[in-house]
């Protein structure tokens, strides 16, 4: 094989507040910034993996400890199991997303690597087969298999997870005039830590509210009722516990609600937060305030985004 591949996978919001482990959204900054990881693949006599980018130094120095190496290993195992030939490749991970940020950092690397490998080897696996691989690898990092980051990152849009292995992700309609302000504070919260802080059981009332909100949200998306959709974007399962890990969370929520925000919540496990607006000027004001008051150090950042309907792309 003489071709070379560049695969890009966008950042994502897991849970989207009301859909714990079941709802995810892919992100695209409106200023054209690439908020996601890229993996380059080219022919080689022996396998190699290099890591570059702003957050490369946050990853293990040993390539075999990198999730992209595990992607290559799993992918070649699947090829051989199907009786297809594999080949050595040189891979470069451009690590543009911070680790433990709540923006689907590991998912972005996994999706870019597996989507790129699949295209490099002439697409032997279909979309759903790739999603199953992506979920398996994501589970190795977070401790449990969930698709609310890898699915929107791969297929794009706003996705609802399905428990049927034949079709993992269901695409929902999106509100095209919504702006999603995301702000990464600069601190790190591991998915495992954020899951451990949660109670092992939930009250019946919370379970009913969770199910009701998710059902109403899906219905509102299809009926294009953005007022109702925003009104039910409340996290009754995780946010009451996880917000203790996030400095200035309550103050940020108060500002957003009082300054035009339709909804506010934790992106995935945090510490990134997101605010939804339907007015660009208000979104800019919220972005500016969060940049000044929520960011904790010089690694933090904020972006105004819309939903990335394209998902992972290969060039």
Automatic annotation (TrEMBL):
Q: One of this protein's Pfam families, by short name?
A: GHMP_kinases_C
UniProt domain GHMP kinase N-terminal: residue ranges:
66-157
Q: Which GO terms describe its cellular component?
A: cytoplasm
Catalytic activity entry: L-homoserine + ATP = O-phospho-L-homoserine + ADP + H(+)
Record-level Gene Ontology MF annotations = ATP binding; homoserine kinase activity
Please state the protein's primary subcellular location.
cytoplasm
The pathway to which it is assigned is: Amino-acid biosynthesis; L-threonine biosynthesis; L-threonine from L-aspartate: step 4/5
Q: Which intervals hold domain GHMP kinase C-terminal?
A: 218-295
Q: What does this protein do?
A: Catalyzes the ATP-dependent phosphorylation of L-homoserine to L-homoserine phosphate.
Matching entries from NCBIfam families are given as: PRK01212.1-4 (NF002288), thrB (TIGR00191)
State the family named in the UniProt similarity comment for this chain.
Belongs to the GHMP kinase family. Homoserine kinase subfamily.
What protein am I looking at? Homoserine kinase
């Amino acid at each position: 094989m003489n071709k070379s591949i560049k695969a890009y996978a966008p950042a994502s919001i897991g849970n989207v507040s009301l859909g714990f482990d079941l709802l995810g959204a892919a992100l695209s900054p409106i200023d054209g910034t690439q908020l996601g990881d890229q993996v380059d693949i080219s022919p080689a006599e022996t396998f190699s993996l290099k890591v570059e980018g702003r957050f490369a130094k946050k990853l293990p120095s040993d390539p075999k400890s990198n999730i992209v190496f595990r992607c290559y290993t799993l992918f070649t195992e699947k090829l051989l199991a199907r009786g297809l030939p594999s080949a050595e490749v040189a891979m470069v991970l451009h690590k543009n997303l911070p680790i433990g940020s709540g923006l689907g950092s590991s998912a972005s690397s996994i999706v870019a690597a597996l989507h790129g490998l699949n295209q490099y080897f002439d697409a032997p696996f279909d979309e759903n087969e790739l999603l199953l691989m992506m979920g398996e690898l994501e589970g190795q990092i977070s401790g449990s298999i969930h698709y609310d980051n890898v699915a929107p990152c791969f297929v794009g849009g706003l996705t609802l997870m399905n428990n049927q292995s034949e079709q993992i992700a269901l695409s929902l309609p999106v509100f095209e005039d919504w702006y999603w302000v995301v702000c990464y504070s600069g601190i790190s919260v591991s998915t495992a830590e954020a899951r451990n802080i949660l109670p092992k059981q939930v009250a019946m009332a919370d379970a009913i509210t969770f199910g009701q909100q998710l059902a109403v949200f899906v219905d509102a998306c299809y009926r294009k009722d953005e007022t109702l959709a925003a009104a039910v974007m409340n996290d009754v399962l995780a946010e009451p516990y996880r917000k203790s890990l996030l400095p200035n969370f309550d103050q940020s929520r108060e500002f957003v609600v009082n300054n035009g925000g339709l909804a506010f919540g934790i992106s995935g496990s945090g510490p990134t937060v997101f605010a939804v607006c339907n007015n660009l000027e208000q979104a800019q004001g919220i972005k500016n305030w969060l940049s000044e008051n929520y960011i904790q150090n010089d690694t933090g950042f904020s972006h105004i985004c819309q939903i990335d309907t394209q998902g992972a792309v290969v060039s």
